[in-house]
Amino acid sequence: MFYISFPKDMNKAKNKKRRRRLIIYIIAVIVLFPVIGFRFYLYPRLPILNGHAAKNMCSCVFVAGIPEEKVKTQELGFFPASLAKIVVNKEEKSATATVWGYGAKTAYYREGLGCALFNGKQPSKETFKAPTTRHDSLANWFEWQAKGKSLVVTPAQQKKLEAALDWAFRADNPKKLFTRAALVVYKGQIVAERYGDGFDKNSRFMGWSMTKGITTLLYGILAKQGKFKIDDPINIPAWKGKPKAKITYRNLLNMQSGLEWDEDYGSMSDVTRMLYTSNALGKFASQKPLEFTPGTEWKYSSGTSNILSYALINYFPNQKSYQEFPYQALLHKIGAYSMLLETDADGYFVGSSYSWATARDWAKLGLLMLNNGAWNGEQIVEKSFVDFIRKPLPKSQGHYGAGFWLNDTTDPKELMPDVPKDAYSYRGFHAQRVEIIPSKDLVIVRLGETHNEPNFSFNDWTKRIIEALEK
Description:
It contains 14 helices and 15 strands.
């Protein structure tokens, strides 16, 4: 009888070989995974990431005068924005961002126009200055209004208001609030005001999407001038002869254009591509296809606001008069001389997102609404248009009107249960807000850099202020 004898350690050798192969595979995966992740996930997103970092650094430094280090730790102190290395050129007035040396994006400052990213085109050296006569009574509106009048709050109320401001600026919150300005206007008087370290009443603060409210008001002024009717189709030449030609001003102002749109700031979405890869933001948004019949569905869209800014130029003979209009017709009429509306690389206002002003000038925009569109005896926007702004849209569950957010809502995520139903507001990214409460004769301003917005409860804060004013 014959038989084959195998070495006893042959199986051990095979197992050892398999283990060696497995270890090699694991090491390969460990080495290659970040490489593949960078190539196929992060690298395509670098234009967005670096664009965001460069644009924000440029505007913060050259428009608002915020120190670079504070911008890095607060405005850009969250992942993945924190990956960006940013170089500020004070002589050129620019900011360039890269991630590990890749995907450079540069934003350039232009006097009177703010900062813009120039994507694939030569940076413009254009500047702008709106002709204006500065009136001290408007610039110092609150002092002028309070002159010779007694304070509308008692010492006890003031003490409670100060406690409410303490809450807004509290540093014991594990998630940094970074409140920079808080201001309360009651019965036309500033009754509480405070600023964070490095900021004061002359500091400019970014409004982000509060800019949408300003864009809406500009159309309110044009409507008052008889330039258009709200149910007219909007004039976008590229839409002629297409289904999109039926989109009306009402549809756009109500965020019911029907245009396809993805408002996701955490990905390569419509809104991030528009803000950081386009030179004409409104034109970019206007090219999106229809998804719904106009007027039938509500969808929050920064693109919609930029289409409105882009189309605004149709009412003016040239770009200069277009750029002068917001200042002459609105901002300087209420003494908001600090306000700067930034434009894109092609010179169109970024009506969705980019505006800067002092806390007091933001409060003036709130007071204009509290006064139903009137200022110092002049009806700047018709009351009927203010009513349109405040009319809840059922498709939004009642939390949106036209450029403004409403508290008359059935949406539990948006409802402030301890605040009057008639409250409405300008709202912006990172918890910027100008709250208007007609039933309380109250305007409340909060500006800062709260990255996780729910950490700053506007319901709780507004409730504290209202309770402080109760006698």
